[in-house]
Amino acid sequence: MSTGQWAVVLGASSGTGAAIALEVARSREFNVFGVHRGRYLEQAQRVEQDVAATGRRIVMHRGDAAIPEGVAQGADALLAAAGPRSVKLFVHSLASGSVGHFVSGGEEQFHPKQVERTFNAMAHSFLYWIQALVARDLLAPQARLLGLTNPLTESLLHNTGLITAAKAALEIYVRHLALELGPKGHRVNLLKFGTVMTPALQHVYSPEALAKLEAAHARMNPSGRMCTVEEVARFVSVLVGEDVDWFNGATIDFTGGMTLRLLDLVLNAPR
Fold first, then answer.
1. Under a CB-based contact definition with an 8 Å cutoff, are residues 240 and 89 in contact?
2. Does the domain formed by 6-267 have CATH 3.90.180.10?
3. Which of 101, 107, 165, 189 has the fewest CB neighbours in a 10 Å radius?
4. Domain ranges of the chain
């Protein structure tokens, strides 16, 4: 068992989760309990080394954070490492979702197992983890509980309907949990941001497709570029502060105006 406040980061081995783990260790002096599936072992080791270099303690727990059994195992390991009332920040950064179509009638049509897996990873596990943290008395006073989402619920992308549906469910969980945990002093919010460059994205897309993706975001975003995982991580650190204590049940827009020009781009696209 360790003293001090802790941040729990699901999906801490790479991408946004890794950046958040390092940032809150450095700027907030939190110990870090990271959960990952083991897909990016080298990156997980790098996160462990980088957080340890800040002087904070880090525990990287390998398991499936998206299913009830994995949640229980992870929460038990967290209790053993951190002790009661130690978790100041909880960040749900799981991004395991299926792409396809609802009624295509072909191979791209979603299978029930894909629906279950996507909703477990991107919505239900947020609830399961918070239930586990509360049941084990792990939340520190005025804990911050944060889900992550994207703009797909307001601007649809043809093959991401299942991910979008799961994110919509996540938003409802956030709002109801904010209502239930607010009287206890805790805050539950959802942070919405646009596309960021991550190892998962680089695994899915070819270099040529990534270049096209970056160019599209440069046209779409008012800033003329994509957001970075470091920018998201720094803002998550801000959300831990007392000055933003009034945020509760909110979907906080950190997209940088990503969707403002969509209609203009469609209607005035070069022909």
1. yes
2. no
3. 107
4. 6-267
